[in-house]
Design brief:
single chain; alpha+beta
């Protein structure tokens, strides 16, 4: 699968978010219903959160252009969910013009390969809003399995979420 991802999305690089990377992603605008992911570019708290080291936001670059991001850790969790430290929480997003074109798996698999190389042997956990079946299918195609559902209450709105878990990749020693 790694070769397929490399052929579809060549030359991806990853780096911790810089202020310019965060500003680029804050400006992205997704069409409905994905507009729920739009961030307020006028809110300085959002920029500060994206740059907090413990949230581990990373830019995904192709040809030196920010085309997506991923995050690792507590900011990938959703209020109301039950979490423990047995898995590394991840979040993922692509530039709006790259979504819905059938290439998300290639980008996501490249990110997962990078994360697994940086944190070998860790379980990975993703939390996705239940109406986003596109993202849930993306996770399932990458080997995540539904762990549980829960309801989150945010700004007096109840929303269902799905927690998915991916077992650590097992790598065989060369020559076996």
């Amino acid at each position: 699968m790694a070769n397929a991802a490399e052929s579809v999305v060549p030359d991806l690089q990853f780096r911790p978010f810089r202020p310019a990377d965060a500003l680029i992603t804050i400006a992205w605008r997704y069409p409905a219903p994905y507009s729920a992911y739009n961030l307020d570019p006028q809110d300085p708290k959002i920029l500060a959160a994206l740059l907090r080291p413990e949230y581990n936001y990373h830019a995904i670059l192709q040809n030196d252009e920010v085309i997506g991001f991923f995050l690792l850790g507590p900011d990938a969790r959703v209020r109301g969910g039950t979490y423990d430290d047995s898995a590394l929480d991840i979040g993922f997003g692509l530039r709006p013009d790259l979504t819905g074109r059938g290439r998300g798996s290639s980008y996501f698999n490249a990110v997962l390969s990078y994360i697994e190389g940086q944190t070998p042997g860790r379980l990975l956990r993703a939390t996705v809003v239940a109406w986003n079946q596109r993202a849930i299918r993306l996770c399932q195609r990458a080997g995540f399995r539904v762990l549980r559902h829960f309801i989150s209450l945010h700004e007096d709105k109840k929303e269902e979420y799905v927690i998915l878990l991916k077992a650590a990749e097992t790598r065989r020693a060369a020559g076996r």
